[in-house]
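does this look right to u?? zinc ion version
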Amino acid sequence: MAPGGSRPSLHFIFEDRTYQAPVRRALRRLPPMTGAPIRIRTAQGLRDRHGEAHAGAFPRERRIVFDRSLKEFRRIFVHELFHFVWLRKGNAARRSYEDLVKAECLAGLPGELGWSAEWRKRALTPRDVETRSRRWREYCCESFCDSAAWLYSGVERHAEFTLAAPRRKHRRAWFAKAVEGGALSI
Ligand SMILES: [Zn+2]
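got this back:
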């Protein structure tokens, strides 16, 4: 929407301009969001505690860092931005998402909508699900972010979209209800 329009907007501070245009394009597909500005930065050889990383979100510091070798900006950007959404969503919404994926896990349904969620889902034990262990909660968060990237990045086909169609429908319906109801405050 043009400046002056009523659509709430999120502002970004680009510490380098590599991703300025791609961010603008990506935002057009996303549900409206508001919040304090987020810094976008690039780095070389990014790692997290699991090893090499494409990107990292730091919602409390209002920062997203992308690795310079990143090939797939659209999906990764939406994924990282939804880490902010997850953090700001209330417990009720987070628990409701947990219930959605718990049903899949208990039914032994494989597949996910991104590798980040997929490898965590594969590593879960029934006890993780039952006790809502740290691994379980990390999986739920990554699954939420990967589902958002699948829904809102504009990437329709990808080798990492392995979740069966009926379950994708459930995810889509959940997001329509819990995420698309109004401007997201992140
Ligand atoms: Zn993530």
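Residues 91-185 form one domain. idk if thats expected tbh
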